[in-house]
Amino acid sequence: MSPSSTTQRLDVKKTYKLYIDGQFPRSESGRSYVVNDSKGKFLANASQASRKDARDAVRAARAAFGGWSGRTAYNRGQVIYRIAEVLEGRRDQFEAELRAAEGISAAMARKFVDASIDRLVFYAGWADKVAQVVGGANPVAGPYFNHSAPEPSGVVAIVAPDRPLMGLISVVAPVITTGNTCVVIASEKYPLPAITLGEVMATSDLPGGVVNVLTGSVAEIAPWLASHLDVNGIDLTGVEDAELAADLEVSAAENLKRVRRPGLEDLVAPPPLDRMTKFLETKTVWHPMGI
Amino acid sequence: MASSVSEATSSDAALRRFLHGLPGVDQVGAEQRAAGLGTRSIKTTAKAWAIDLAIRMVDLTTLEGNDTPGKVRALANKAMHPDPLDPTCPSTAAVCVYPDMVATAKKTLGSSGVKVAAVATAFPSGRAAMPVKLADTRDAVAAGADEIDMVIDRGAFLSGRYLEVFEEIVAVKEACGDAHLKVILETGELQTLDSVRRASWLAMMAGGHFIKTSTGKIQPAATLPVSLVMLEAVRDFREATGQMVGYKPAGGIRHSKDAIKYLVMVNEVAGEDWLDPDWFRFGASTLLNDLLMQRNKLKTGAYSGPDYVTLD
């Protein structure tokens, strides 16, 4: 029987879930929240992550850290470049999602998607170069070699700014390119492109757990990440409430997390190196000669 | 029943008749009941109580070929003071080691009340001649072991030579003297839940103080459906004979959540009397770290991490 012209095809709606450990689970709490487009019309339901999802994400990030940081910097660069390749193939989808979310023109959306891809390529290139810039051989007054080399901090929690795609990539790429793994709370207002970006990462050689994306309330989830003793750094770029940011910094001090404070920043401008160096630690080795 | 035990064990045929006369296990039903009990939610003060109880029930285990006296000393210290920063944290029930490490463990533990359990009888395979197994047991007891974990001859059991297995357990128990005897059934090799029930009864009738699921060297190790059957067995055995036998799941229990599921099952299936380190133990090593991390989470309100517990 041929499809009858009188029956209308039902759209297949996408379920937006979380991205944890390379999988797309629903929130453990079973909650979701409504995401509207720029005109206030219903767009989709997004998962509202709970503290237990954050805990699971940290566990996944910790498990992935050994393998990811142990890869050669060159290989990490290749993997991040591969994310850019896969993203390039899905430009139309992201363009449509950005237009729906922000109500911007097609040309503008295209510009943002292109800039996001370029940003990934930029950080992919940095993977095997950052050590030359911030590390090196130190001059010492003795018959020794003395080297400093940057090493990743570990698991970094990130609060992404309220810019759908560009914002997320600008904060995640510099953190993972140096070998950290991360748990990122996507923009509360624009969570959908973040989960679609998760799909891109899941299909682009990035090991599961290196990037974990949570959607939901920053005020609810961030304090659990800030106080988590197995998190080594926290990037507060997307925290707009100054009081919350201060509280998060205080919690983060408990185990001396590296903290990147929130501050006004032009995400489209050429990015500063400190997004990478903030979550690096310097190891210095004395190497005696002649023995 | 006491007379019927001696009657049932009078000959191989009688023993087979008795064990095969035990009611069969409905496997689907057992799995469903175990899964149902696993969904109970234990929170706040009940959780804190359960975690402390679980710590007191741990047989902290190291059974590796590369064990050293130093590692055993470290483990024994950890058993006495699982959280050195918190004096309210209880000690574990015992440390479980190979027989040659018993003396080291005993010396470190001193009069702390933490017991030393030794695996004997050619653990984990049990494939050795009877005199070797008995010598292994006596050796561990002489070194100061408070508890002996023996393995049954699974080959004989699966071939239906029940009386041989029975007599072996009786002989090892005699060699134990005052030490408590835990009988390892190695349920991962017993194939069916019916076999698990028969082996449980066999071990209890032979005088084991505890029945234990696994060596931890074979997968699957302890599972919830197997525990359900074994807990039913200890419950039914007490009803029939008046004797209480302990239960120890071992292997594969790594998270606090799993441990709490076991405690729920013990309470619901066997009864409250078994919620005591004298009658229920966890054979585990990594479980203790997770229990300590959860304990810290409840105490401080912040998630803890593996950097704050020992590596072992």
UniProtKB/TrEMBL annotation, chain A:
It holds the Pfam family Aldedh. The keyword Oxidoreductase applies. SUPFAM superfamilies: ALDH-like. The keyword Oxidoreductase applies. This is Aldehyde dehydrogenase family protein. Keywords: Oxidoreductase. GO terms for molecular function: oxidoreductase activity. Gene3D superfamilies: Aldehyde Dehydrogenase, Chain A, domain 1. InterPro entries: Ald_DH/histidinol_DH, Ald_DH_N, Aldehyde_DH_dom. It comes from Nocardioides marmorisolisilvae. Residues 28-259 form the Aldehyde dehydrogenase domain.
Automatic annotation (TrEMBL), chain B:
One of its GO terms (molecular function) is deoxyribose-phosphate aldolase activity. GO terms for cellular component: cytoplasm. It catalyses: 2-deoxy-D-ribose 5-phosphate = D-glyceraldehyde 3-phosphate + acetaldehyde. Pathway: Carbohydrate degradation; 2-deoxy-D-ribose 1-phosphate degradation; D-glyceraldehyde 3-phosphate and acetaldehyde from 2-deoxy-alpha-D-ribose 1-phosphate: step 2/2. SUPFAM superfamilies: Aldolase (SSF51569). It comes from the Bacteria. Keywords: Lyase, Schiff base. GO terms for biological process: carbohydrate catabolic process; deoxyribonucleotide catabolic process. Its EC number is 4.1.2.4. Belongs to the DeoC/FbaB aldolase family. DeoC type 2 subfamily. This is Deoxyribose-phosphate aldolase. It comes from Nocardioides marmorisolisilvae.
